[in-house]
Amino acid sequence: MSERTAEPAGVGVAGAGYVGLTTAACLAHLGHRVTCVDTDAAKVTALRAGQVPIAEPGLPELVEQGLSDGGLAFTTDLAALREPALVFLCLPTPTGDRGAPDLGAFDDALAQLRGGLRPGCVVVIKSTVPVGTADRVADTLGVSVVSNPEFLREGHAVHDFLHPDRVVVGARDETAARAVAGLYAGLDAPLLHTTPASAELAKYASNAFLAVKASYVNELAELCERLGADVVDVVRTMGLDNRIGSAFLSPGPGWGGSCLPKDTRALLHTAGESGLDFSVLADAVAANARQCDRVVAKVRHAVTGSAEGSLAGLRLGVLGVTFKAGTDDVRESPALAVAERLAAEGAQLTAYDPGAQADLRLEHVHLVDDPLLVAKDAAGIVVLTDWPQFRDLNWAQLGQLAEQATVVDARNLLDPGELGQAGFAYWGLGRR
Ligand SMILES: NC(=O)C1=CN([C@@H]2O[C@H](COP(=O)(O)OP(=O)(O)OC[C@H]3O[C@@H](n4cnc5c(N)ncnc54)[C@H](O)[C@@H]3O)[C@@H](O)[C@H]2O)C=CC1
Ligand SMILES: O=C(O)[C@H]1O[C@H](OP(=O)(O)OP(=O)(O)OC[C@H]2O[C@@H](n3ccc(=O)[nH]c3=O)[C@H](O)[C@@H]2O)[C@H](O)[C@@H](O)[C@@H]1O
Known about the structure:
alpha/beta, 6-stranded parallel β-sheet, 15 helices, about 15% strand, disordered N terminus, binds uridine-5'-diphosphate-glucuronic acid, EC 1.1.1.22, UDP-Glc/GDP-Man_DH_C, oxidoreductase, NAD, UDP-glucose 6-dehydrogenase activity
């Protein structure tokens, strides 16, 4: 169903990744005329043919719709951003030196846009960038700049863009703020007008808070194990308190992905530069590294029967390589971090992931397209990503194929009772 409500406006989008492509396709869906520019020629060619290179539900349909009704166009030519009244910057900001974001791609685009934007153009920063960037961009480009950070989750990108919990517009210029807010007029979401600095910091603060929450629950799971409590019951009890909320309370092999790790590093860097020892956040990051160690230790113990056992030469099956369920993204995947450590101890790893891209090749892991192959002759199976499909596998059959029916469920995804009935020794997190 079309959600065209606002006045059509010419919009340019620089970057056609998770955020840029979603922004472009969704704004076209909302009735705006959008030109999306990416320097990756192969990506642009594919997009022009309606091929969406990332796994995001609903995105291919919106791209197809935009291409066919003419509301959405793709190009490699940054000069196409001279015409639109609003230009979104959705460029990558990966980790650079000492945890600070690497703004190389972002600044390259700025250099190309300098002097080439139409008078009165508003530049909108959607990339996650350090506090002060909007003001710097305004000085560089000589136009109004609005900070409008994005909060979508991978795997839910279209849904989250069209149904956001909030839209934040950080601007010094009231007219520019109104122009950006107007783009979202068709959405039912609280709109916050802030300074650019507050909008920029709110983005980092949100991701960092999620990271702290996930690290808290991972440490809590360890405590549950030591005290003989069940973390599933403990977090269910916590989550029913509205002040805490039930989201982001599942223990796992650590939090990863393309954003939480880099954004926590960036915020720690910013805090450090300003002289603040943001120790709560630093501890959450350190706890995340320990979580990988814990899962590796648990696998060692479960599979060899001893905390000091050797994994050398043992075949292990791995379920999940993406950083979470519902995505094809393996950037900073905790599953791969654990796999790499297991491989370093000499284990031979065969992995299955329902979301991994067909051409994905991994250094330490043999990827297969059938979960049964993961179990074959395995000394143990390790669940590292929370794909719900793993619950529905024929575990009795997996148990028969395995040399040793042991499962380490590093996502607490499976039902221990059912696994027991299927003949497995079950090892979860925080629930022994
Ligand atoms: N991935 C996510 O879920 C979210 C990401 N963000 C932030 O959004 C920004 C973009 O992230 P992603 O979309 O994940 O990145 P991505 O890596 O998926 O996409 C970036 C795109 O920009 C293109 N590009 C690089 N340099 C360019 C240039 N000079 N001109 C035009 N295109 C260029 C690349 O070819 C690529 O297609 C980052 O700052 C990230 O922190 C914010 C919220 C969610
Ligand atoms: O800035 C970004 O890029 C985005 O980063 C995260 O989104 P995303 O990276 O898609 O991933 P999440 O769903 O937040 O999961 C992050 C990691 O935490 C882990 N996690 C999450 C929840 C939980 O209870 N336990 C847990 O271990 C996940 O498995 C995953 O490894 C934020 O949730 C988005 O709001 C934000 O826009």
